[in-house]
Amino acid sequence: MPATARLPRHDWREREQAHQTRADELTRGWRERQLTGESHPVDDFVHTYYPFKASHLRRWHPGAGVALEDSAEDERADWRWYRRDANDTMVDAEAFVEARGRSIRFITGLLASTSARQGQFGCFGLHEWAMVYRQGEHRHATPLRLTQAQTDEVVESHRIGCSHFDAFRFFTPDAAPLNTLTPSRENQPELEQPGCLHAGMDVYKWATKLGPLVPGDVLLDCYELARDIRQLDMAASPYDATTWGAEPVAIETPEGKAEYVRRQREFAQRGNALRDRIVAAVTAGVGPLLAEANS
């Protein structure tokens, strides 16, 4: 597949260096804690839940269809999914589509359908509460903000409508039947909606799985979104998140609900903007190859 754009060496090197600087700043805390053995349940989540190395996050990709001039001797020429073209290098779009075409179609289809769907903003982050419902032992060692009985009462007095399988699968046995939906891997494309915090964090996951097809700035924006959403996810949880630097959002109160929905809507907008950017980048870069492979 021929290049549709060309970047002179000084241009792409400048973009690459800016990307590396930004990535280093974003992951500084995580990398420092790796050396000391410390952990931060809020900030580290993006790294522990999504198996994508900080060193890979640091790699800048221009996206498919972009030739980087005078880069054949650069280390990226030996990266997986890149190929040399005379003295230039570019993403080997054909090889990537051949190897992962089915996955690319699933991811872009899921992102597009989620972006087009109406967001739901009445869950109030109760998925985290359902994960500790009627349980003596919890996933995190941090104490609950309320007593166990009060926490259980919050769950029982609200409508639980979690639409995300990777949150629902951690519900306690007593909480699962209370959910008005039954999310699964199979119905994920039908249930995924932009108001869901976990779906918003997962935009980062989908970006990492699309590898070099996603431009570097989009990937880092997805990482930042996931990290920011995790703050609200834990702030609105039943845990006392103040020790993690997250001031609690008391969703059991009217004021807390209003604050949660306000921030939830902002994340939905950011998530949809990123979904659209990813789909646009992939369509522009490998759209014809996907259509050809699917014909």
UniProtKB/TrEMBL annotation:
Highest taxon in the source lineage? Bacteria
Chain segments carrying region Disordered: 1-26
Q: Where is the composition biased (Basic and acidic residues)?
A: 8-26
Protein name (database record) = 3-methyladenine DNA glycosylase
Tell me what organism the protein belongs to. Answer: Homoserinimonas hongtaonis
